[in-house]
Amino acid sequence: MIESHVLRRLSWVIAAAWQSLLCVDAVAAGGCEDEARRGVARLSNSGSVEVVATAVVDGDTFVSTIEGAARRIRLARIDAPEKRQAYGHRAEQALRELVWKRTVQVSWARLDRNCRPIAEVRVDGVDVSEAMVRKGMAWQYTAYSQTPELAAIEKQARTSHVGLWSDPNPIPPWEWRRGHDKL
User: Fold this and answer.
1) 38: pLDDT confidence band, cut at 50, 70 and 90?
2) Is 116 a catalytic residue?
3) Could you confirm whether 74 is annotated as catalytic?
């Protein structure tokens, strides 16, 4: 039988851990309303900074501190599999290997509807979006990017059956999202 003081202590530890997770999730969830609630000034529609990637959210989004606040940064030109989708966790891991705890150069010319900068990101001179496509961990997001260079990189990854292209019928994330509710 577990004594009541042990149960109270365990309950407190679990509650503290849960609260900590909620705080991290709130930063990761982002959005204009969330930034306003946290008293964070909205980023300008364009900018360029050198920052350290402090967390990776998924295969095309990471977190860095910009202007004193944790901000989600969305990689431009690509769309990576969702976490619950085939290759979603592998894409997240691939982005983590590229950027996590590293200094990255971030340049953006617009914010998305969630106030995230849609950014060109480089680490040690390497274009991170191109690297993700080259590894077969993301698609060129053709709704927003028509660059022939990125299309050629995707074609090479597809032909080489690298990453998600080893699957005989990979489903692009924009199609997968249509059939799945977000949790």
Assistant:
1) confident
2) yes
3) yes
